[in-house]
Amino acid sequence: MNASSWSLRNLPWFRATLAQWRYALRNTIAMCLALTVAYYLNLDEPYWAMTSAAVVSFPTVGGVISKSLGRIAGSLLGAIAALLLAGHTLNEPWFFLLSMSAWLGFCTWACAHFTNNVAYAFQLAGYTAAIIAFPMVNITEASQLWDIAQARVCEVIVGILCGGMMMMILPSSSDATALLTALKNMHARLLEHASLLWQPETTDAIRAAHEGVIGQILTMNLLRIQAFWSHYRFRQQNARLNALLHQQLRMTSVISSLRRMLLNWPSPPGATREILEQLLTALASSQTDVYTVARIIAPLRPTNVADYRHVAFWQRLRYFCRLYLQSSQELHRLQSGVDDHTRLPRTSGLARHTDNAEAMWSGLRTFCTLMMIGAWSIASQWDAGANALTLAAISCVLYSAVAAPFKSLSLLMRTLVLLSLFSFVVKFGLMVQISDLWQFLLFLFPLLATMQLLKLQMPKFAALWGQLIVFMGSFIAVTNPPVYDFADFLNDNLAKIVGVALAWLAFAILRPGSDARKSRRHIRALRRDFVDQLSRHPTLSESEFESLTYHHVSQLSNSQDALARRWLLRWGVVLLNCSHVVWQLRDWNRVPIRYREYGITVFHCCGE
């Protein structure tokens, strides 16, 4: 290590940009303010307000608003569940354990059926009930149930309000800018994707690029939701944004179908490749209009109407050009701020699929884990069993929906061990020597600001720093009045680590389904949905089935099983191409018989 690495320029405070300082100061002030307000409101565990402010510390206004609404709804639902379950079963430990385990299992199952704010609300409803109810096993008066539940909800709301207020004082980047930039970048990337897919070779890079484009378009739905909550104009334009996302998915499908036609075309026109490259270059320019496109693709116009491959390719290419130009116009209208609700029809959001088998398995795992830990706590009369149950409940509910639960649980274990050592030094080395909250804040403020900066400057360890920030409050445990009992401190921290370790063991025994099984389940679901597309009155429209298919494909985007991912992608692309032909035939049902026969011939050509 040389001397230059220790220079002031490399310290996090001097390396930080203005945007990083704004983010760090906003979140740090919000956490310290939440702790202060909760402390002077005489709430018994004000550190939960600091934790709540840390959880809703999103970099954008829309993220803070949507996360806060989900957190408030989930906290209220969890508090009501804790009051009802604990109030009726507190005198019967086994019945109390059974009812709480069932509630947390239900929340784990329910959050798998939703996305974004609703899924987050069910997660909060689960572990908020655990945070409130499990410590109640040591109380003797039923009236304390309401006091504890009320305090926890108030602490959560205080943290959310402080986070929201600081977002208004120190706002960050605009959700609208982020969404429009992402839409423009994806619009340009579709041309690059078309240039890649329309090459004659087949490589793993092409397959990975196709999965990447699908995943990015589906991810933009989250940006749309954040823009919806932060901007009135985007709430008015929500239908247009949904239609744009559907259009980008449709263009991805058309690019894939054109690739299939090119690969299975024995004798395409000689200048096809050159014309396609010229077309993509022209579409990249904002000055290109329909007449320019028509002149470029005119040499590809079929002269023999009996050449069904050529006719099908021509029609599909024209459709792609029309979609791309229409999408360019809509993006321009969004950027210019022109509100016109007549251009695009009202479109539903992107469809999604729930793996019911995996959701049921996750709920069962949570139930069994809590029953096992609870039975051990009751049999051994462990005073800190409530902490083990609480951390196990949080781990099971949160990590049932992640792609790599073992990696996440291992990271959480490392976080808890580091926080146990750190909180011991802070609590019994510093906090015992101070008597006022403001003295502790003089230490806490620069510490949190530095941790926030390190989280931004060290992307590789961002998850670790984020968990250290969120869980630090519950380990330092600033209470009113303060409590310094080393035996309780050691027992509580050990219980938290044991709870996470037992959750890890539960995931190892009741393992999530393998990617191969998930792939087969997704393929069966795709086939069932495609059969529905063949019915006289299908449940899903063409665009809804398209977004649902891509949602299936994206579920294994992070899988290490290349074979499972490949087969799911193949089934999705083939069934999607067939569904487009089905809808084309359905549209031709009102035209003369000879055109129906022509469409059936095209169907067979696409299937070769």
Topology:
Blueprint: H1 12-15, H2 18-40, H3 47-55, H4 61-89, H5 93-111, H6 116-133, H7 143-169, H8 175-197, H9 204-230, H10 232-236, H11 238-263, H12 272-283, H13 290-297, H14 308-336, H15 356-380, H16 385-399, H17 405-429, H18 437-457, H19 462-476, H20 486-509, H21 515-533, H22 542-554, H23 562-587, H24 593-607
Offer a concise description of the structure.
The chain is an all-alpha fold and 608 residues long. It has helices at residues 12-15, 18-40, 47-55, 61-89, 93-111, 116-133, 143-169, 175-197, 204-230, 232-236, 238-263, 272-283, 290-297, 308-336, 356-380, 385-399, 405-429, 437-457, 462-476, 486-509, 515-533, 542-554, 562-587, 593-607.
How would you describe this structure to a colleague?
The chain has 608 residues and is an all-alpha fold. The protein folds into three domains: 3-173 and 353-509, no CATH class; 176-230 and 238-336, no CATH class; 516-607. Helix content is 75%, strand content 0%. The protein has helices at 12-15, 18-40, 47-55, 61-89, 93-111, 116-133, 143-169, 175-197, 204-230, 232-236, 238-263, 272-283, 290-297, 308-336, 356-380, 385-399, 405-429, 437-457, 462-476, 486-509, 515-533, 542-554, 562-587, 593-607. The longest helix has 29 residues, at 61-89. It is elongated and about 90 Å long. Mean pLDDT is 85; it is low at 602-608. It is a multi-pass membrane protein. This is Putative membrane protein. It is found in: Cell membrane.
